[in-house]
Specification:
- It holds the Pfam family ABC_tran.
- Belongs to the ABC transporter superfamily.
- GO terms for molecular function: ABC-type ferric iron transporter activity; ATP binding; ATP hydrolysis activity.
- It contains nine helices and 21 strands.
- The model has no long low-confidence stretch (mean pLDDT about 90).
- Helix 3 runs parallel beside helix 5.
- The chain is of the alpha+beta class.
- The protein starts with a strand and ends in a 9-residue tail after the last strand.
- The protein is about 25% helix and about 35% strand.
C-alpha cells in the first residue's frame, strides 16, 4: 500500500501544447491517502483513463511528478511500481486454465506453491468461478473472461495500489452488484489503496470512500457521496450526481435573497457574487409545488411514477426542470408555482459554487 502524490501533474497528447485547452489533463495537485478507496467519475473523454494510466506508469505525464510514499516514480515502469491494474476489456491467456490465469502474477513473483493455491482458491470463490478453475479460458464468455481479469488484479495482497479502469462494463447487472460488494470487502479486509474509474455514478457512490469528479480534463470536486450531493462544487457535479440531477436557474443574488425573474427566493445564508454568470442550484428533492400564491410560475408537462417517488417534469423560468415527490405524495391540484427549501439551495458563479463567505469553493 502507498500514499500516491500527484505533484503539478498535467498531460497533453500534443507535442507542443500552447494553451490550457491543449491539455487532456489540466494541472492537478492531490494526495491519494494510503488505504482509501477512490472512484474517478466523469463522462467519456474527461481524462479519467489518462490520469489512471499516469498513476500506473503506462503513460508518462507531460508535466509534473507522481510519488509513492514520497518517492518519485514518474519514470518507473508499471512493474516497478508494484501496481495491480484491471482494464475495461478482458485480458486473459486463452491457452491457460482459469486457475493458471489467476496464478500467473503470483508465479511471476515466485510465491510459495501453497500460498498461490490458497489465494487462487479464495479469489476463484470471490468471482464465482470455483467450478471453472480447471477449465481453459478459451471459449468462455466475455463476462467470464473479465471476471478472470478482475481476479488477477485482486489476487495479490502486497500491491501498492489496485487500479480499475471501468472493469464491469461487460459484466451482467446482477454480477456487477456482487463484484462491487466483493471489491468493497477486499478493501475492508486488506486496506489496499484502490482507484476505480467509471462513468456510472451508482458504481462510484457505492464503491468509494471519496469520489473524484472530473470534467473537461479537470478535477472539479473530491468528496464523500454526501458532500457531492449536498454541496456540489461545480454545476457539472450537481448535474452528473443524482437522478434526476440538480436544477440550475439563472438568478440575481443580493445578500440573503435571489431573484429568478420576478420571484424572490430566500437563501440559507449571505452570499456575495461578482460580475460573472450567477445561478442557483436546487436538487429536485428541494423543489416544492404550489397552487397559486408566491413562487416561480411553472407548468407541469408530465408526471413519472418510478415506484419510490414521482418525478414531476415541468417548465419554469424559461427552461425545463424537475421536482421529486415522495412515494404516496400527491401533486397539489392546480399546481402552477414552485418554491425551494432554502436548505437545499447552492449559489454558483461561472459554474463554481460560492460559499456563504463569498469565496469560491476549492475543487
Amino acid at each position: 500500500m502507498a500514499k500516491i502524490t500527484l505533484d503539478n501533474l498535467a498531460h497533453s497528447y500534443l507535442p507542443n501544447p500552447q494553451t490550457e485547452d491543449d491539455f487532456a489533463l489540466k494541472e492537478l495537485n492531490h494526495d491519494w491517502q494510503d488505504g482509501e478507496a477512490y472512484a474517478l467519475l466523469g463522462s467519456s473523454g474527461c481524462g479519467k483513463s489518462t490520469l489512471l494510466n499516469i498513476i500506473s506508469g503506462l503513460l508518462r505525464p507531460s508535466h509534473g511528478r507522481v510519488l509513492f510514499d514520497g518517492k518519485d516514480v514518474t519514470d518507473q515502469a508499471t512493474a516497478e511500481r508494484n501496481i495491480g491494474q484491471v482494464f475495461q476489456f478482458p485480458v486473459v491467456y486463452d491457452t491457460m486454465t482459469v486457475r493458471q490465469n489467476l496464478a500467473f502474477p503470483l508465479r511471476n513473483r515466485r510465491m510459495p506453491t501453497e500460498e498461490i493455491a490458497r489465494l487462487v482458491q479464495k479469489v476463484g470463490a470471490m468471482i464465482g468461478m470455483e467450478a471453472e478453475l480447471d477449465r481453459k479460458a478459451r471459449g468462455l464468455t466475455a463476462d467470464a473472461k473479465q471476471k478472470i481479469s478482475l481476479g488477477r488484479g485482486m489476487v495479490r495482497e502486497d500491491v501498492n495500489a489496485l487500479l480499475f479502469d471501468e472493469p464491469l462494463t461487460v459484466i451482467d447487472p446482477h454480477m456487477k452488484w456482487e463484484l462491487r460488494t466483493q471489491l468493497k470487502k477486499l478493501h475492508q479486509d486488506f486496506g489496499h489503496t484502490m482507484i476505480y474509474v467509471t462513468h456510472d455514478q451508482t458504481e462510484a457512490l457505492t464503491f468509494a470512500d471519496k469520489v473524484v469528479v472530473m470534467y473537461d480534463g479537470r478535477v472539479v470536486q473530491i468528496g464523500t457521496p454526501q458532500e457531492l450531493f449536498e454541496r456540489p462544487a461545480h454545476t457539472f457535479v450537481g448535474y452528473f450526481i443524482g437522478s434526476p440531477g440538480m436544477n440550475v436557474f439563472d438568478a440575481k443574488v443580493d445578500g440573503m435573497q435571489a431573484r429568478i425573474g420576478e420571484a424572490a427566493i430566500a437563501l440559507p445564508a449571505h452570499h456575495t457574487t461578482g460580475r460573472g454568470r450567477v445561478q442557483i442550484g436546487v436538487r429536485p428533492e428541494f423543489v416544492r409545488l404550489h397552487a397559486g400564491g408566491e413562487g416561480i410560475p411553472a407548468s407541469i408537462h408530465r408526471i413519472e411514477d418510478v415506484g419510490r417517488h414521482k418525478i414531476v417534469r415541468l417548465e419554469a423560468a424559461g427552461g425545463e426542470f424537475n421536482a421529486l415527490l415522495n412515494e404516496g405524495a400527491a401533486v397539489p391540484a392546480g399546481a402552477d408555482r414552485i418554491t425551494f427549501d432554502p436548505a437545499g439551495i447552492n449559489v454558483y458563479e461561472n459554474d463554481w459554487r460560492v460559499a456563504p463567505s463569498g469565496r469560491r469553493d476549492a475543487a
